[in-house]
Protein backbone atom coordinates (compact mmCIF):
# COMPACT_ATOMS: atom_id res chain seq x y z
CA UNK A 1 0.00 0.00 0.00
CA UNK A 2 1.35 3.42 -0.94
CA UNK A 3 0.44 6.48 1.10
CA UNK A 4 0.61 10.21 0.43
CA UNK A 5 0.89 12.60 3.38
CA UNK A 6 -0.33 16.12 2.68
CA UNK A 7 0.66 18.86 5.16
CA UNK A 8 -1.03 22.24 4.70
CA UNK A 9 1.62 24.69 5.89
CA UNK A 10 -0.97 27.49 6.03
CA UNK A 11 -3.00 25.74 8.73
CA UNK A 12 -2.85 27.31 12.16
CA UNK A 13 -1.06 24.44 13.93
CA UNK A 14 0.77 22.73 11.05
CA UNK A 15 3.84 22.19 13.25
CA UNK A 16 1.86 19.48 15.07
CA UNK A 17 2.06 17.31 11.96
CA UNK A 18 4.80 14.89 13.04
CA UNK A 19 5.48 12.71 10.00
CA UNK A 20 7.19 9.92 11.99
CA UNK A 21 4.21 9.70 14.33
CA UNK A 22 1.83 9.65 11.36
CA UNK A 23 3.73 6.71 9.84
CA UNK A 24 3.36 4.76 13.09
CA UNK A 25 -0.41 5.32 13.00
CA UNK A 26 -0.78 4.59 9.26
CA UNK A 27 1.38 1.59 8.23
CA UNK A 28 2.18 1.49 4.50
CA UNK A 29 4.78 0.07 2.12
CA UNK A 30 5.84 3.50 0.88
CA UNK A 31 5.19 7.14 1.69
CA UNK A 32 5.34 10.43 -0.15
CA UNK A 33 5.21 13.65 1.88
CA UNK A 34 4.12 16.93 0.30
CA UNK A 35 3.98 20.32 2.04
CA UNK A 36 1.39 22.49 0.32
CA UNK A 37 0.03 26.03 0.39
CA UNK A 38 -2.73 25.70 -2.14
CA UNK A 39 -3.87 23.13 -4.65
CA UNK A 40 -2.73 19.52 -4.39
CA UNK A 41 -3.53 16.13 -5.90
CA UNK A 42 -3.19 12.57 -4.62
CA UNK A 43 -4.20 10.40 -7.56
CA UNK A 44 -2.62 6.97 -7.76
CA UNK A 45 -2.21 6.50 -3.99
CA UNK A 46 -4.02 3.84 -1.98
CA UNK A 47 -4.44 6.10 1.02
CA UNK A 48 -4.02 9.78 1.84
CA UNK A 49 -3.29 11.53 5.13
CA UNK A 50 -4.54 15.13 5.11
CA UNK A 51 -2.93 17.32 7.79
CA UNK A 52 -4.53 20.70 8.34
CA UNK A 53 -7.70 22.43 9.40
CA UNK A 54 -11.35 22.18 8.44
CA UNK A 55 -10.68 23.52 4.95
CA UNK A 56 -8.00 20.88 4.36
CA UNK A 57 -10.45 18.16 5.36
CA UNK A 58 -13.08 19.61 3.04
CA UNK A 59 -10.62 19.60 0.12
CA UNK A 60 -9.56 16.03 0.90
CA UNK A 61 -13.16 14.79 0.93
CA UNK A 62 -13.56 16.05 -2.63
CA UNK A 63 -10.14 15.11 -4.01
CA UNK A 64 -9.81 11.66 -2.47
CA UNK A 65 -13.11 10.04 -3.37
CA UNK A 66 -12.62 6.29 -3.54
CA UNK A 67 -9.36 6.39 -1.57
CA UNK A 68 -8.78 5.54 2.06
CA UNK A 69 -8.53 8.89 3.84
CA UNK A 70 -6.97 9.80 7.18
CA UNK A 71 -7.26 13.25 8.75
CA UNK A 72 -4.84 14.81 11.22
CA UNK A 73 -6.46 17.93 12.76
CA UNK A 74 -3.84 20.67 12.98
CA UNK A 75 -5.80 23.79 12.07
CA UNK A 76 -6.99 26.60 14.32
CA UNK A 77 -10.50 25.42 15.22
CA UNK A 78 -10.64 21.78 14.09
CA UNK A 79 -14.39 21.38 14.52
CA UNK A 80 -14.25 17.67 13.55
CA UNK A 81 -11.28 16.78 15.76
CA UNK A 82 -13.35 15.21 18.55
CA UNK A 83 -14.62 12.43 16.26
CA UNK A 84 -12.79 9.12 15.90
CA UNK A 85 -14.19 8.61 12.43
CA UNK A 86 -16.23 10.61 9.93
CA UNK A 87 -18.72 8.35 8.16
CA UNK A 88 -20.86 10.96 6.38
CA UNK A 89 -20.48 14.42 4.90
CA UNK A 90 -22.65 17.27 3.69
CA UNK A 91 -23.11 18.03 0.02
CA UNK A 92 -23.93 21.21 -1.87
CA UNK A 93 -24.54 20.63 -5.58
CA UNK A 94 -22.32 17.55 -5.44
CA UNK A 95 -19.48 19.20 -3.50
CA UNK A 96 -18.58 17.71 -0.12
CA UNK A 97 -18.07 19.81 2.99
CA UNK A 98 -17.39 18.55 6.48
CA UNK A 99 -19.54 20.70 8.73
CA UNK A 100 -20.52 24.24 7.65
CA UNK A 101 -21.59 26.27 4.63
CA UNK A 102 -22.78 29.77 5.49
CA UNK A 103 -23.30 33.26 4.13
CA UNK A 104 -24.12 36.61 5.69
CA UNK A 105 -23.26 38.12 9.06
CA UNK A 106 -19.91 37.06 10.54
CA UNK A 107 -19.25 34.38 7.94
CA UNK A 108 -16.28 36.22 6.42
CA UNK A 109 -14.25 35.65 9.58
CA UNK A 110 -13.78 32.00 8.61
CA UNK A 111 -11.46 32.88 5.74
CA UNK A 112 -10.34 36.45 6.54
CA UNK A 113 -7.94 35.75 9.42
CA UNK A 114 -4.27 35.77 8.35
CA UNK A 115 -2.21 32.60 8.63
CA UNK A 116 0.43 34.35 10.77
CA UNK A 117 -2.24 35.54 13.21
CA UNK A 118 -3.80 32.07 13.47
CA UNK A 119 -0.42 30.54 14.28
CA UNK A 120 0.35 33.15 16.90
CA UNK A 121 -3.04 33.75 18.50
CA UNK A 122 -4.86 30.49 17.66
CA UNK A 123 -8.63 30.93 18.10
CA UNK A 124 -8.18 34.49 19.36
CA UNK A 125 -7.13 35.50 15.84
CA UNK A 126 -10.81 35.53 14.88
CA UNK A 127 -11.89 38.10 17.49
CA UNK A 128 -10.77 41.21 15.53
CA UNK A 129 -12.44 39.74 12.44
CA UNK A 130 -15.70 39.27 14.37
CA UNK A 131 -15.81 42.98 15.16
CA UNK A 132 -14.88 43.91 11.60
CA UNK A 133 -17.52 41.73 9.96
CA UNK A 134 -20.39 42.35 12.35
CA UNK A 135 -22.70 43.67 9.66
CA UNK A 136 -26.38 43.52 8.81
CA UNK A 137 -27.09 41.71 5.56
CA UNK A 138 -30.25 41.64 3.48
CA UNK A 139 -30.16 38.36 1.55
CA UNK A 140 -33.22 37.39 -0.52
CA UNK A 141 -33.73 33.63 -0.28
CA UNK A 142 -36.28 30.91 -0.90
CA UNK A 143 -35.75 27.64 0.96
CA UNK A 144 -37.45 24.28 1.03
CA UNK A 145 -36.41 21.88 3.81
CA UNK A 146 -37.99 18.41 3.59
CA UNK A 147 -41.05 19.87 1.89
CA UNK A 148 -41.44 22.90 4.19
CA UNK A 149 -41.02 26.20 2.35
CA UNK A 150 -39.65 29.48 3.68
CA UNK A 151 -39.19 32.72 1.78
CA UNK A 152 -37.85 36.05 2.96
CA UNK A 153 -34.77 38.18 3.53
CA UNK A 154 -32.06 37.04 5.88
CA UNK A 155 -28.90 38.35 7.51
CA UNK A 156 -27.44 34.88 8.12
CA UNK A 157 -28.01 31.54 6.40
CA UNK A 158 -26.03 28.61 7.76
CA UNK A 159 -26.09 24.91 6.94
CA UNK A 160 -24.40 23.09 9.81
CA UNK A 161 -23.60 19.46 10.56
CA UNK A 162 -22.22 19.94 14.05
CA UNK A 163 -23.20 21.01 17.54
CA UNK A 164 -20.90 24.00 17.28
CA UNK A 165 -19.39 26.62 15.01
CA UNK A 166 -16.45 28.88 15.90
CA UNK A 167 -16.42 27.14 19.29
CA UNK A 168 -19.96 28.21 20.15
CA UNK A 169 -21.75 25.03 21.28
CA UNK A 170 -25.14 26.41 20.36
CA UNK A 171 -26.90 23.61 18.44
CA UNK A 172 -28.69 21.83 21.29
CA UNK A 173 -30.47 19.44 18.96
CA UNK A 174 -27.39 17.86 17.41
CA UNK A 175 -26.52 15.30 20.10
CA UNK A 176 -29.99 13.72 19.97
CA UNK A 177 -30.33 14.09 16.20
CA UNK A 178 -26.88 14.27 14.54
CA UNK A 179 -27.77 15.42 11.04
CA UNK A 180 -27.64 18.60 8.95
CA UNK A 181 -29.37 21.73 10.27
CA UNK A 182 -30.51 24.97 8.71
CA UNK A 183 -30.00 28.13 10.77
CA UNK A 184 -31.57 31.23 9.24
CA UNK A 185 -31.76 34.63 10.94
CA UNK A 186 -34.07 37.20 9.38
CA UNK A 187 -32.73 40.52 8.15
CA UNK A 188 -33.37 43.64 10.21
CA UNK A 189 -32.78 45.91 7.21
CA UNK A 190 -29.84 47.94 5.98
CA UNK A 191 -26.53 48.00 7.80
CA UNK A 192 -26.50 50.81 10.38
CA UNK A 193 -25.73 51.17 14.08
CA UNK A 194 -29.38 50.96 15.11
CA UNK A 195 -29.89 47.71 13.23
CA UNK A 196 -26.63 46.23 14.50
CA UNK A 197 -27.88 46.78 18.03
CA UNK A 198 -31.20 45.20 17.11
CA UNK A 199 -29.41 42.23 15.57
CA UNK A 200 -27.34 41.63 18.70
CA UNK A 201 -30.27 40.16 20.63
CA UNK A 202 -31.13 37.19 18.36
CA UNK A 203 -27.42 36.44 17.90
CA UNK A 204 -26.87 36.45 21.66
CA UNK A 205 -29.90 34.22 22.14
CA UNK A 206 -28.68 31.70 19.57
CA UNK A 207 -24.93 31.55 20.03
CA UNK A 208 -24.45 32.32 23.73
CA UNK A 209 -27.62 30.81 25.21
CA UNK A 210 -27.92 27.95 22.75
CA UNK A 211 -30.81 26.98 20.52
CA UNK A 212 -33.13 24.01 20.19
CA UNK A 213 -34.71 23.15 16.83
CA UNK A 214 -37.66 25.49 16.31
CA UNK A 215 -39.12 28.10 13.99
CA UNK A 216 -39.34 31.52 15.64
CA UNK A 217 -40.50 34.89 14.40
CA UNK A 218 -36.98 36.18 13.70
CA UNK A 219 -34.95 33.00 13.27
CA UNK A 220 -35.16 29.27 12.86
CA UNK A 221 -33.04 26.19 13.47
CA UNK A 222 -34.36 23.03 11.81
CA UNK A 223 -32.90 19.61 10.97
CA UNK A 224 -33.28 18.33 7.43
CA UNK A 225 -32.48 15.50 5.06
CA UNK A 226 -32.88 17.54 1.89
CA UNK A 227 -32.72 21.31 1.46
CA UNK A 228 -33.04 23.54 -1.58
CA UNK A 229 -31.83 27.13 -1.27
CA UNK A 230 -32.33 29.70 -4.01
CA UNK A 231 -30.50 32.99 -3.64
CA UNK A 232 -28.35 35.51 -5.48
CA UNK A 233 -24.70 34.77 -6.23
CA UNK A 234 -22.66 35.73 -3.19
CA UNK A 235 -19.66 34.65 -1.05
CA UNK A 236 -20.09 31.66 1.24
CA UNK A 237 -17.79 30.28 3.90
CA UNK A 238 -17.39 26.52 3.37
CA UNK A 239 -15.37 24.91 6.16
CA UNK A 240 -13.31 28.09 6.54
CA UNK A 241 -12.72 28.64 2.83
CA UNK A 242 -14.30 31.26 0.56
CA UNK A 243 -16.55 30.12 -2.29
CA UNK A 244 -18.99 32.05 -4.47
CA UNK A 245 -22.33 30.27 -4.83
CA UNK A 246 -25.73 31.26 -6.10
CA UNK A 247 -28.82 30.19 -7.99
CA UNK A 248 -30.37 26.88 -6.95
CA UNK A 249 -28.31 25.11 -4.28
CA UNK A 250 -29.17 21.55 -3.27
CA UNK A 251 -27.97 20.41 0.16
CA UNK A 252 -27.98 16.94 1.65
CA UNK A 253 -25.96 14.44 3.66
CA UNK A 254 -24.34 11.36 2.15
CA UNK A 255 -22.63 8.35 3.77
CA UNK A 256 -18.99 8.01 2.78
CA UNK A 257 -17.93 4.81 1.01
CA UNK A 258 -14.69 4.95 3.00
CA UNK A 259 -15.13 6.53 6.45
CA UNK A 260 -12.41 9.03 7.33
CA UNK A 261 -10.18 7.99 10.23
CA UNK A 262 -9.25 10.89 12.53
CA UNK A 263 -5.68 10.62 13.81
CA UNK A 264 -4.26 11.92 17.07
CA UNK A 265 -1.64 14.68 16.99
From TrEMBL:
<dbReference type="GO" id="GO:0016301">
    <property type="term" value="F:kinase activity"/>
</dbReference>
<dbReference type="Pfam" id="PF00781">
    <property type="entry name" value="DAGK_cat"/>
</dbReference>
<feature type="domain" description="DAGKc">
    <location>
        <begin position="6"/>
        <end position="82"/>
    </location>
</feature>
<dbReference type="InterPro" id="IPR016064">
    <property type="entry name" value="NAD/diacylglycerol_kinase_sf"/>
</dbReference>
<protein>
    <recommendedName>
        <fullName>DAGKc domain-containing protein</fullName>
    </recommendedName>
</protein>
<dbReference type="InterPro" id="IPR001206">
    <property type="entry name" value="Diacylglycerol_kinase_cat_dom"/>
</dbReference>
<dbReference type="InterPro" id="IPR017438">
    <property type="entry name" value="ATP-NAD_kinase_N"/>
</dbReference>
